[in-house]
Amino acid sequence: MSTMSQRRLRIAEMIARRGEVSIGEIIESVGVSAMTVHRDLAKLEDVGLIERRHGRVSALATTQQEAAASLRIEQRKAAKRAIARLVAQEVSPGSSVIFDDSTSGLWVLRAMADVLPLSVITHSQRIAQEASARSGVQLFVAGGAYLPWADSFVGPTTAKILSGLRANYAVMSSSGILRGSCYHPIEELAQLKRVMLRSADTSILVVDHTKFTRQAGHAFAALTEFDLVVTDSATPAAAIAAMRDSGVHVRVAGAGTGSGG
Fold first, then answer.
1. Which residues 6+ apart lie within 8 Å of 42 measured at CB?
2. What residue spans of 134-253 are helical by DSSP H?
3. Which ranges carry the HTH deoR-type domain (predicted)?
């Protein structure tokens, strides 16, 4: 990861953790010129991570959701559980699965409690911790530069490890979906998702209804690149119809029942 990318990630993490900070505090913390910090903030603002106003910088709601993994796990639990149950039905014992660092992926892993044996490949420390505590699971962790707010590893080392592996399935989520493309606010994480797509025989996108019409910076795949998209019943009917019209295989989970459609 470049020095510039590391600095921007550090700034994004600081803002997300504190909610709001002054530009002066950021300059003092990262130790670069005011001009450099303003350029970094402009980039973070362009991708929808922060908002600048009167010398202060605030984290937007989507930023805080991305930055606080422990809080994201608790969001929309019913929908994520229902989606996860449908995904678990797609995977047979003895399979290998690549998971990204999304909380939706964590719910899928939990739904696979009876899918054993199972090989898990991930760059997410949280997913790795849960997988390592389960008997019948073989775990491969793609290490690299640790990103605390995402609780995952990123960077060229992580990408190299993932690109050298092959799995039956890749399970990942997206921060936003707009006009048939999937987005993530952090470029390095978007790049890892592209690598995961290329490293799996079957790719599964898991997204709840809040992700539709939300753009989040960096496009990493078209919906048509996925073999299956699983969402919940609160997703707008027009969005589901548009995906199916474009040839995307979609399954819809009822938030209360986990049924597919």
1. none
2. 156-163, 187-198, 237-245
3. 4-59
Locate 113 and state its tokens: 């409690």
Region of 114 (left: φ > 0; alpha: ψ -120 to 50; beta: rest) is alpha
Q: Do 164 and 247 reside in the same domain of the chain? A: yes
Q: What is the pLDDT of residue 74?
A: 54
pTM: 0.74
Reference 184, options 154, 153, 220, 210; nearest CA is: 220
45 close to 81: Cβ distance less than 8 angstroms:
no
Given a contact cutoff of 8 angstroms between Cβ atoms, the answer to whether 94 and 117 are in contact is yes
| Chain segment 234-245, per-residue pLDDT in tens | 999 999 999 999
Same structural domain, 137 and 231: yes
142 shares a domain with 80: yes
What are the E-state strand segments in the chain? 20-22, 50-53, 56-59, 96-99, 118-122, 137-141, 145-147, 152-154, 167-172, 176-178, 181-184, 200-206, 218-222, 228-232, 250-253
